Amino acid sequence: MTTKSNSAIAAIPLKIPFLTTPLLKDVIYLIIFIPLFWLLGFDQLGWPFLAMLFLAKFILISAKSGRRLFPSIPIIHAVFVFLLFYLCSGFFVQNSVRLITFARNFSMYFSGGVIFLLTVAAVKTEKDLTDVFWALTIFTFITVFIGALVIANILDFEFYAPLYHILPGKIKNLKFARALFLKKPAKILHAPLIDVFRLKVFFAFANPLAGLIDLTIPIQFILWGTTKRRLLKCFLLATLILSIISLSYTLSRGGIIALLVGLGYLGVRKKGFWLKKMFFTILVFLVVLLLNYTLPSVEMFQQRVEKGFARKDPREVIYNATFKSFMELPLLGHGTQLDIPGRPDLPPMASHGTFVGILYKQGILGFMAFAAIIFNLFLMLERLIRQKTDPFLRKVGEFLSMALVALLVQALVIDIDIDSIFLQLVWLFWGLITASYLCYKREGRGTGYARV
Question: How far is residue 368's CA from residue 379's CA, in Å, rounded to a whole number?
Answer without folding.
Answer: 16
